[in-house]
Amino acid sequence: MTCDVRHNLSIVKERLAARNLFPGTSGNLGIRNDDNTLLVTTSGVDKYITNNQSFVHVSATGEPLEELKPSLETQLHVEIFKRTKARTSIHIHTVSNNVISEIYGDCGSIEFRHQELIKAFGLWQEDDVLRIPIIENPSDINQLAHLLVPHIQSDYGIVLIRNHGVNVWGRTSTEALKLFEAAEFLFEYQLQLNAARHYIKGEM
Ligand SMILES: CSCCC(=O)C(=O)COP(=O)(O)O
Ligand SMILES: [Zn+2]
Known about the structure:
The protein is an alpha+beta fold.
């Protein structure tokens, strides 16, 4: 594994940490190496700090290759990397992605149309629709991975996990971060739109 990979994952982690996106040690990240082994964040640690315990080198199937505890959600990154050419995988808990996942969870997805930011997902036509799947959140990680797998259909993508968080992956770290940030914008937009509509309805 090259130093570049570690450096790259540190940059992704620090960018997210700068936005306070690892509350209560939640969230985890993974990068795929050229030899298909992964570098993932360490489980349960303060992700606002970066040191030599921050990342764990694991095999392509998620087995630790050093004496550190990999993320409890490593299996989700493993499934994404196994099925795509993605190199970076991000899992983040925010209030907005959790509330959206609960409000729309019974529908199994949330759709965005006529919103400029869907272009971040390569949807440039006026009538294009961004559909983000929402899966349930079983406590067993193998069951959760089983629910995620059918939605891993492209080298970049996004899935919401109900009352848990979001998984986003991309061919590069830049792409994964772009999709994550665009999705969070859309989630916040939808919540504010719903609140404004509710308020206006109450006024009338
Ligand atoms: C305290 S958050 C609960 C676990 C979780 O959902 C998460 O994202 C962080 O787990 P990890 O093992 O990667 O630290
Ligand atoms: Zn999580």
